[in-house]
Write a structure and sequence with these properties.
The chain is of the alpha+beta class. The chain is 63% helix and 18% strand. The protein is built from 4 helices and 3 strands, in the order αβααββα. Bound molecules: zinc ion.
């Protein structure tokens, strides 16, 4: 993905948003991000989900899916409060970006 270093923060926030709303899993998140114009591979997304869980923003569990299992993620209390803090800053920043160029 082009400009990945810059866009990673937005992707993490996007993941957090959906994990606050409900359960998310890797392939669903890849499809959702593609819908928003981000092409992200499993090799990039899964380590990102792991890191977000390690840092306490997400909690995962294994869930049966067809003949196998998948790992589903939800935001923790810490994840929800980080989301609120980030959302206020995104609102503030987008106001400036829209008024700017
Ligand atoms: Zn979305």
């Amino acid at each position: 993905m082009k400009y990945q270093d810059l866009l990673r923060g937005l992707i993490r926030l996007h993941i957090l948003f959906h994990a606050v709303e409900g359960e998310v899993y890797g392939q669903w998140m890849i499809d959702e991000l593609r819908r928003h114009g981000y092409t992200i591979s499993p090799g990039t997304l899964y380590p990102m989900l792991n890191a977000m869980e390690r840092k306490g923003y997400l909690k995962s569990k294994r869930q049966p899916a067809g003949h196998s299992f998948r790992r589903v993620y939800r935001a923790t209390a810490r994840g929800r409060s980080a989301y609120k803090a980030a959302k206020a800053r995104v609102r503030e920043l987008s106001r400036e970006l829209i008024e700017g160029l």
